[in-house]
Amino acid sequence: MFCSKCGTALVEGAGFCGGCGQRVGAPTMAASAPGYVSPPVSIRSPYAGFWLRFVAYFIDLAIIGFVLGIFVGGAILFFGVGVFHEFGNGADQASGLVPLMVLGFILLCAFVLSAGVWLYYAWMESSIYQGTLGKMALGLTVTDMQGRRVTFARATGRFFAKIITNMIPIAIGYIMAGFTEKKQALHDMIASCLVLRKV
User: Fold this and answer.
1) Residue boundaries of the structural domains of the chain
2) How far apart are the first and last CA of the chain?
């Protein structure tokens, strides 16, 4: 349990907060009083550091790689039958078709992969789970700066902000999650997001 005013962890059965002295369970102002403003959602979880996020990233990478492998393998089997059939009918006739099929296949894979990865991250992080499968496995959630669930648009902005993070040499944009005050990587700062660890 945490204090609704300052976020300090409360001792079980405590009557007052040890951080600010507020009586536990008592609002600072009646909700019905004129001018009452509801307090922001208190951040109840510690910030997730670099290494936890690093492990979650590799779990997600393994999942994406597995799904991509199934997709690519299926596509190769599907298109491969046609290519071998063309070679059987005549190598000269098929020679001009094969490069076009290979190029089209590569472009299709690139598009599907990019769209799939974007939807995976943006949808999962804006869903009720508030995190990808890798983050869920480690008890991590993506929130806004007040600890609330992010929208799909914000999660999309966070995903594409990683393009800027990737442009920083030697992964400094990601390593920032290890030493910034709120353990934010560069894309978290751009999208005004936090990654929290459940307690």
Assistant:
1) 1-39, 50-197
2) 11
Could you read off the pLDDT tens digit of each residue along the chain, which spans 199 residues? 566 666 666 666 555 555 555 556 544 444 445 554 444 544 455 899 899 999 999 999 999 889 888 877 776 676 665 555 555 555 455 556 667 777 777 787 788 888 989 999 999 999 999 999 999 999 999 999 888 899 999 999 999 999 999 999 999 999 999 999 899 999 999 999 999 998 6
Nearest to 49 by CA among 150, 166, 195: 195
* Cα dihedral 75, 81, 83, 88 in deg (nearest 10): 170
Q: 3-class SS at 197?
A: strand
Contact 121, 64 (CB under 8 A): no
DSSP, res 43: -
Q: How many CB atoms lie within 10 A of CB 15?
A: 10
Q: What are phi and psi of 132, to 5 degrees?
A: -70, 175
d(CA 20, CA 5): 8
Taking residue 99's Cβ as centre, other Cβ atoms within 10 Å add up to 9
Nearest to 20 by CA among 9, 35, 33: 9
**Rounded CA gap, 129 and 140, in Å?**
9
CB 141, CB 195: distance < 8 Å: yes
In angstroms, the CA 99 to CA 110 distance is 16
